[in-house]
């Protein structure tokens, strides 16, 4: 089995879909690459943002629930999703975020240090915690030529996610012994683990918070994080391995643009293992990505009802 290469995507809850799309597309410069629905709740959008083609390791996705209550952060969830930027882009992003009315975490210069890297922390309009972390490591991403952010300052896929946990030991065991992550190091109550790739989306941070309350899902909460496998055969190997370890893993779910299995790690964070294939060019060409509501074949007969149920959404040119 090939070790897990790193992160595939991260999925969170938003509130208003237009506000969500405008922020990620216009402020962060992440292309809206797919407009579809939650396959388990087709009256709700599922919006995908990433690089020009939605490369694995760049994809942040959202279920916008207009009437959802605000989530409460706590143990048992992915507390922050971090993107990579170049070190020379720190001032650009501090200025850009502030110019768009985004409050950056209060530190002496608007940024912090973690494992020798600069970190900019902020929230999106619906409360999702985000970070920009500097790195000079390789980043194989497809730059979006129409991005409002110039290429030299563009986000270069994911850096990491931070999980809030009661105890790191059992989660670390799954990362290392089931998913083949390697231990990087520790700073205070934060430990870091690395996937097998030397490219994007490599890191998982465990922030140990014993005896702290659990989170409550709502807008601003991360629903799950997904790890990368190359194809169905490799995913099937992981399904077998994870079940043999005693984890309760779902059957394979067809998500149209990838196939997925899910399980909860011991602290309660929902993990997904997703395939890279077939990808987001499955049902529309690259120049049209995100511009039309795409439905899986089994929902096409319900298109009129679904289009009537979801709120209007304009592509954020």
What key attributes describe this structure?
317 residues, alpha+beta, 2,3-Dihydroxybiphenyl 1,2-Dioxygenase, domain 1, 8-stranded mixed beta sheet, 16 strands
Helix/strand layout:
Layout: E1 7-14, H1 17-27, E2 31-38, E3 41-50, E4 59-64, E5 77-85, H2 90-99, E6 112-114, E7 117-123, E8 129-134, E9 158-165, H3 169-178, E10 182-187, E11 190-194, E12 203-208, E13 222-229, H4 232-244, E14 253-254, E15 259-264, E16 270-275, H5 303-309
Parallel strand pairs: 1-4, 5-8, 9-12, 13-16
Antiparallel strand pairs: 1-13, 2-3, 3-4, 5-9, 6-7, 7-8, 10-11, 11-12, 14-15, 15-16
Strand arrangement within the widest β-sheet reads 2-3-4-1-13-16-15-14
Mean pLDDT: 96
Level-2 CATH architecture: Roll
CATH-wise, what's the superfamily? 2,3-Dihydroxybiphenyl 1,2-Dioxygenase, domain 1
Output the helix-strand order.
EHEEEEHEEEEHEEEEHEEEH
Number of domains in the coordinates? 1
Total strand count, please?
Answer: 16
Rg calc: 18 Å
| End-to-end separation | 42 Å
Separate helix tally = 5
Shape: globular
- Low-pLDDT segments: none
Helix content: 10-25%
Summing up helix and strand content along with how strands pair, one would put the structural category as: alpha+beta
């Amino acid at each position: 089995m090939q070790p897990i290469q790193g992160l595939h995507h991260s999925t969170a809850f938003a509130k208003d879909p237009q506000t969500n799309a405008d922020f990620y597309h216009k402020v962060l410069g992440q292309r809206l690459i797919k407009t579809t629905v939650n396959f388990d709740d087709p009256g709700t959008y599922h919006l995908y943002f990433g690089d020009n083609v939605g490369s694995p390791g760049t994809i942040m996705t959202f279920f916008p629930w207009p009437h959802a209550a605000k989530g409460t952060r706590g143990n048992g969830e992915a507390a922050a999703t971090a993107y990579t930027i170049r070190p020379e882009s720190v001032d650009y992003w501090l200025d850009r975020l502030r110019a768009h009315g985004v409050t950056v975490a209060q530190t002496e210069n608007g940024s912090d240090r973690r494992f020798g890297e600069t970190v900019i922390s902020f929230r999106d309009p619906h409360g999702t915690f985000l970070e920009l972390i500097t790195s000079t490591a390789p980043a194989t991403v497809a730059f979006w030529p129409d991005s409002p952010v110039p290429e030299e300052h563009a986000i270069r896929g994911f850096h990491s996610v931070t999980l809030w946990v009661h105890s790191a030991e059992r989660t670390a065991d799954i990362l290392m012994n089931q998913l083949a992550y390697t231990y990087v190091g520790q700073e205070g109550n934060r430990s870091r683990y690395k996937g097998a790739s030397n490219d994007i989306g490599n890191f998982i941070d465990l922030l140990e918070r014993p005896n702290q309350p659990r989170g409550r899902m709502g807008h601003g909460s991360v629903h799950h994080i997904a790890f990368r496998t190359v194809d169905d055969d490799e995913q099937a190997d992981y399904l077998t391995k994870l079940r043999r370890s005693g984890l309760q893993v779902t059957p394979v779910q067809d998500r149209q643009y990838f196939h997925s299995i899910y399980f909860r790690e011991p602290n309660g964070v929902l993990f997904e293992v997703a395939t890279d294939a077939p990808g987001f060019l499955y049902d529309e060409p690259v120049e049209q990505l995100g511009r039309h509501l795409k439905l899986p074949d089994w929902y096409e007969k319900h298109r009129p009802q679904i289009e009537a149920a979801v709120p209007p959404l304009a592509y954020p040119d």
